[in-house]
Specification:
By secondary structure, this protein is an alpha/beta fold. It is 17% helix and 28% strand. Helix 4 packs across helix 6.
Length: 425
Amino acid sequence: MKLIATIIALLFSIPFINAQNFADYFTNKSLRVDYIFTGSASNQAISLDELSQLPSWAGRKQHLAQLPLEGNGQITMRDLKSKECIYKTSFSSLFQEWLSTEEAKTTPKGFENTFILPYPLHSVEIEITLLDTHHNITASMTHIVDPSDILIKEKGLSHITPHKYIIKSGDEQECIDIAILAEGYSLSEMDLFYQDAETACESLFSHEPFKTMKGRFNVVAVASPSADSGVSAPKLKQWRNTAFQSHFDTFYSDRYLTTNRLKAIHDALAGIPYEHIIILANTDQYGGGGIYNAFTLTTAHHKMFRPVVVHEFGHSFGGLADEYFYDEDVMNDTYPLNVEPWEPNISTRINLSSKWEDMLKQKTSIPTPVSEKVKYPIGVYEGGGYSAKGIYRPAYDCRMRTNEYANFCPVCQRALQRIIEFYTE
């Protein structure tokens, strides 16, 4: 009886796995949904902007109603009649980062956000929610999509951006599809862009677990032209007319290179199978940014290009947190110390068992002193997520901490491997 009771307890402790058949709910096309996130630090809202249909679906066809990571926001698609969840995805956004700035306390703003969902066979209800750092819902909206709606635009059937594959491991329905876009490259500089895209690809797949699992990826370089060469640097009073209007000094942080022109990014990719996006900026100025399930954007001609593009892709693809910190920051508002962060590679120790506790050697000191970093390559080292105190990382050093360290730490490698398996198995 004790064994039976244990088995029953285990069954109830395992999350429900929805083994839906993709073809029962979706056709092999994509639904592109454009939203505007608006508001200020005190009040946020979500508005629907536009719906589009893309000619193919490059996303997962399994684990449809599951999330690999919680993210800072979630989208749930339900069958309109049965209310059954038929697809879920999660994300983070530049808007939510902006909410912590001084500007957000006084000036409401709007940010573009675009998501690619499988195209439903029948009418669906789509719910999108934004979460704060305590995992509470701060804004949400629900809307109905009728797949036969004549106002859903068809995109990607003509005027497709020139592109070529760097890695082609298989069909887009079997592989994870990464698109590398050109930002700040004029038409005459596209040969340079293709070289830079090759370098980015080479760097990414020299790191585990991408190296071992390379056969699960397609990578396509997309030659999106800009009127001007280079990218904007407001602090230097340099403004460029580029494909995605990216710029340094995001939120007045010198090295933070981002863009709010999400619709332009996805317009450039229409008709090309893609799931994850890397944008290369034609500049030698140091900087970049990576936002989970949105994009990686990094400079292509700085000497640290190779490690930085991999680091930023760790954010946008794997939802990995920054493991570096500033000694003067004893408490940073980015991560409340009474909540376990959703990112897999940092912890407040509120729920360390949900992170990498199972990877620790017996008798590992918690917290782990830096003096024991050789003895314990996986530990619980204080300092991470920008804060010197109260946030812990799994290794003394990692690609998510410094540009000089050669690899992702074992915990980050496992987290990335799990994401790859989630998308492909």
